[in-house]
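[audit] Reproducing an earlier prediction to check determinism. Same input, same settings, fresh worker. If the C-alpha cells differ from the archived copy the diff job will pick it up downstream; this log only records the rerun itself.
[audit] input (220 residues):
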Amino acid sequence: MNTNPNHKPKTDKNTNDQKPRKTVNLANEFLWALIGLLLTIFSTFLPAFTTNVPWTWSSDGVVSQPLGVTYQIGAVLLTGCLGGKNAGALAQIAYVILGLTWLPVFAHGGDWEYLKEPSFGYILGFIPGAWVCGLMAFRTRTKIETLAFSAICGLLVIHLCGLVYLIGLALFNPANGDLISLANLPSFMLNYSLIPIPGQLVIVCVITAIAYFLRLILFY
C-alpha cells in the first residue's frame, strides 16, 4: 500500500474520450427493420436529384438535376446507421423475399426470374452491406465521420457483391448468355458500378447528415 499522501491513482487519460459502445434494443431493432423495409420499397422508384446552390435560387430559380440513381441505396444504408446491423440486414432479407415470392418491389418487377437480372447481385448485396454499415456505425459514440465511413463501407460491400454476381452470370449461366457474357461484362460493370458511384456518394453524404442529427435527437 502506498502511504504517500500526495500519491494519486493512475487513470487512463483516454477514459473520458471513450464511451460505451452504442446498442439498439430488440424492440427498436424490429421497428427500424420495418421502417427500413418500407423505405427501401418506396425509394426504389424515387429518382435522386440535386439542385443548384440555395444562394442562386432568387436569381436563377430552383433547378433540379438528376443524379442518375434512386434513393434506394440511401434507404439501405440509413437503416444500418440508425437501426444497427441486425435491423439493417433483416430489412433487406425481407425485401429480397418479398421481391422473389410475392410483390414486384424491385425496379423491374419481381419473382424468381429476377435471379437472372444483372442488378440482382446488388440487391443481394444490400443484406451484407446494411449489416456492415450497421456494425461499424455503432462501434463508437455518434460522430458524423464515423457514420460517413460506415455508409461508404456498406456501399463498397454492395458493389462488391454486385460485381461478383455479374461475373457469376457471365461464367456459369449459359442460358443468360444473350444478355451478359465475358465479352460485354466490362460494359455491365461500368453501367452498374462505376457510373452510379458519384450519385450514390452524394446520397451517402445526405443520409450521413440525416443519421447524425436523428441519433443526436434520439440520444443514442
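[audit] rerun output stored. Observation attached for the diff report: The two ends are 41 Å apart (CA to CA).
[audit] end
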